[in-house]
Amino acid sequence: MKILAFSDLHLARARAADLVAASAEADLVIGAGDFCNMRQGLDQAMQLLAGVAAPMVLVPGNAESADELRAAALPDMTVLHGTGTEIDGLRLFGLGYGVPPTPFGDWSCDLTEELAGQMLDNCSATDVLITHSPPKGLGDLTSGGISVGSVAIREAIERLQPKLALCGHIHDSWGQRGYLGATEVVNLGPTVNWFEVDH
């Protein structure tokens, strides 16, 4: 299956246009959160993606809530948050929000490590794990060199060993890739990222 994946669109019109154009080649499109800014403009963000030519699976970032994303999602979009789905035999599980809680204040949708861990425990097996936040120690460095990823997400990747673990959230680490065991972990960013996954 040919997958196009991105994160942290943040209402960037030109980035969205690139993604829509590339989606003509995709079997599945994955969006790993933060489609809008500070809970504003989510409907507009979905309209920017309206031309995507493949099924989409989305998780909420810390810039939109799960309920807000479900309400704004277009007909061919599936929203995951502590839940999974299967598309053409490919198993996907998603967890949105900032983990651990961000310093950004009341508008940010965040989860504690404990709650994130409980929600990830709902997953017993998956081919692709989609989270907004990166795992602790991979794709999670701020510009100041501080590791701000999630222990609960890292533990879930180590336990589940999906083929792919896709995330975003930490802008300074966009494009970072690495492995946790057999799992490739990628902090996506708002660019066109291609993956081939057999299932």
TrEMBL record:
Domain Calcineurin-like phosphoesterase as annotated: residue spans: 1-190
Gene3D superfamilies reported for this sequence: 3.60.21.10
Signal peptide boundaries: none
InterPro entries in alphabetical order: Calcineurin-like_PHP_lpxH, Metallo-depent_PP-like, UPF0046_metallophosphoest
Pfam families registered for this protein in UniProt: Metallophos_2
Family: Belongs to the metallophosphoesterase superfamily. YfcE family.
PANTHER family: CALCINEURIN-LIKE PHOSPHOESTERASE DOMAIN-CONTAINING PROTEIN, METALLOPHOSPHOESTERASE
UniProt protein name: Serine/threonine protein phosphatase
